[in-house]
Write a structure and sequence with these properties.
alpha+beta; four-stranded antiparallel beta sheet; about 50% strand
C-alpha cells in the first residue's frame, strides 16, 4: 500500500510542477541567437524604394548578449537610417511570444546620436518567435533621425530568409 500512496504522491507532485510551470510563461529562460541581412525594392508613390536591414540579436532570457540593428530606406532623392545597439541603454523582458526590448532613457539615446529635433519619445521592439521564424515589430522612432521607424520584418532562423511586412 505504501507504494500506491508513494506513486500517488509523486503524480500529485508532478501535476503541481506542471501547473506551476504552465503559469510561469515568460519567467522560463528563452534564448535567441540570430544574424540577419535583408533587402528588398518596392515601387511606391515616390518611385522605387530600397529597404535594407542587417543585424545581430543574441538574448538569454532578459540578458542581452549582443544587439546591433541597422535599418535603411533609400529613394532616388534621399535616404533614411535607423540604428540601435547595446550601447543605447537597451533593456529586455520576456513575453509569452518572445521578448520586448526598450530603451531605458530614449531621449538620452537620441541626444547621444546627435539628433537635434524631436521625432517621437519612445522605443520598443517586440521579437515574436514562432517556430523557426522571428517577427521583428519595431516602434522606435526616437533612434531614426527623421525616418518614422525601423522596418518591420520576419526572419527565418534556419534559412536566413527575410520577409518585409507591408
Amino acid at each position: 500500500m505504501t507504494q500506491v500512496g508513494g506513486a500517488g504522491a509523486v503524480l500529485r507532485s508532478l501535476a503541481l510542477l506542471g501547473l506551476l510551470g504552465a503559469g510561469a510563461g515568460p519567467v522560463l529562460a528563452q534564448q535567441l541567437d540570430m544574424k540577419f541581412s535583408c533587402s528588398t525594392t518596392r515601387i511606391e508613390d515616390l518611385g522605387p524604394t530600397i529597404y535594407a536591414d542587417s543585424g545581430e540579436i543574441r538574448l538569454d532570457g532578459t540578458q542581452i548578449k549582443a544587439l546591433r540593428w541597422e535599418s535603411s530606406l533609400h529613394r532616388s532623392t534621399h535616404g533614411f537610417d535607423c540604428s540601435i545597439d547595446s550601447d543605447d541603454g537597451v533593456q529586455a523582458e520576456t513575453t509569452e511570444q518572445g521578448w520586448r526590448l526598450r530603451l531605458q532613457d530614449p531621449q538620452a539615446a537620441r541626444a547621444t546620436r546627435g539628433y537635434d529635433s524631436e521625432h517621437g519619445a519612445n522605443c520598443t521592439i517586440r521579437l515574436e518567435r514562432s517556430g523557426d521564424t522571428v517577427r521583428i515589430k519595431p516602434s522606435c522612432p526616437v533612434l531614426c533621425g527623421s525616418r518614422n521607424n525601423f522596418s518591420e520584418l520576419s526572419v527565418d532562423l534556419k534559412t536566413g530568409g527575410c520577409r518585409y511586412e507591408e
